[in-house]
UniProtKB/TrEMBL annotation:
Pfam families: 2-Hacid_dh_C. Residues 114-292 form the D-isomer specific 2-hydroxyacid dehydrogenase NAD-binding domain. This is C-terminal binding protein. Keywords: Oxidoreductase. It comes from Plastoroseomonas hellenica.
Length: 347
């Protein structure tokens, strides 16, 4: 029997390349550790949780009862940016650090956000259909109504790691930029050529509004009807963060009633969206299946990061990305110094 038991649900995860834990084990191979699978159900997890030294969280929700059943656990590690699948508060109360991958696929998400911005602005999907449907002559008249991109304004809601990389890309296109983020110092914004602004100012003055807020309880349904009413009628809304941060019926209403001009969405309130969702039939909305972070390096990079975090904590060292947001008086987690993750998810 190995010294360290790392418990993980069998089956579903992000991977499309098959099973196995070779990448995770690279950092663990000299530690007498093994990754043990359990059924991907709450009952299955509970039956195996008591003697687990660590949890590799994937494929399901990790609830308070599941976390409370962990008697020996030293760390819960996620192979994603978002941590909303784990009850982090419950883990904190048990003194268990929760780690994520806050900086592993930032470049890919930033590329995707910029792609959605450019494609919605230049009406790429509609132009493609015009060619395929023998409507060639309609293409130029449509784009003659589209403003020049240079000099337009991109507004960020939250300015974490992904938003900062989007800003680098957008600057090359000559976009003016501003951001609302009460937790980021003004000097950080200025380093990226971004102007600090209130949420109201970002909404009312931006030609593109890019959402990067993580899915925390406080951010649930953050953008509502009143916010979409503040936006320009010509504005385009981009979301590569988390779907639940937006009141989706309000977004749909804003698009249907033309309070805003269009949207580029990688995330939805319910995923996958119901086929009756009006967003699926709107011409000036570009959608992708919550895959902004995906690339050929996605699985190897995130799996290696999980292995590294597990190895660090099991060997008594600091994790690279502890996301526990609070240290309550008397909590056994007081020995850990929380590390602020990117405040934008997939953000």
């Amino acid at each position: 029997m190995a010294k360290y038991k790392i418990l993980t649900p069998a089956g579903a995860s992000f991977t499309t390349a098959g099973g196995g834990y070779d990448y995770e084990m690279e950092a663990l191979q000299n530690m007498d550790a093994e990754i043990v699978e359990c059924p991907a159900t709450e009952a299955g997890f509970l039956a195996a949780a008591r003697d687990a030294d660590a949890v590799y969280a994937k494929g399901m929700q990790f609830t308070k009862p599941m976390i409370d059943a962990l008697e020996k656990c030293k760390v819960i590690s996620l192979g994603s940016v978002g941590v909303d699948s784990v009850d982090v508060t419950a883990a904190t109360l048990r003194g268990i650090p929760v780690t994520n991958c806050p900086d592993t696929f930032i470049e890919e998400v930033a590329d995707h956000a910029m792609m959605l911005l450019l494609a919605t602005h230049r009406r790429a999907i509609e132009q493609d259909r015009m060619v395929r449907e023998s409507r060639w002559k309609e293409g130029r008249p449509q784009l003659l109504q589209v403003p020049r991109l240079m000099g337009m304004t991109l507004g960020f809601i939250s300015f974490g790691r992904v938003a900062r990389q989007v800003a680098k890309r957008a600057r090359a296109f000559g976009l003016h930029m501003k951001a609302y983020d009460p937790f980021i110092q003004e000097i950080v914004l200025s380093d990226y050529g971004v102007e600090p602004a209130s949420l109201s100012e970002v909404l009312s003055t931006s030609d593109f509004v890019s959402m990067h807020v993580p899915a925390t309880p406080e951010a649930q349904g953050m953008l509502t009807e009143k916010h979409f009413r503040q936006m320009k009628k010509t504005a385009i809304f981009i979301n590569t963060g988390r779907g639940p941060t937006v009141d989706e019926p309000a977004l749909i209403k804003a698009l249907e009633e033309k309070w805003i001009a269009g949207a580029g969405l990688d995330v939805f309130q319910i995923e996958p969206p119901n086929q009756e969702n009006p967003l699926l039939r709107m011409p000036h909305v570009i959608l992708s299946p919550h895959n902004a972070s995906a690339s050929a390096r996605f699985d190897p990079a995130r799996k290696r990061r999980v292995g590294q975090e597990l190895a660090l904590v099991l060997s008594g060292r600091w994790p690279m990305s502890c996301v526990n947001p609070i240290v309550l008086p008397g909590s056994p987690l007081r020995r850990w110094q929380p590390y602020a993750m990117d405040r934008g998810p997939n953000s």
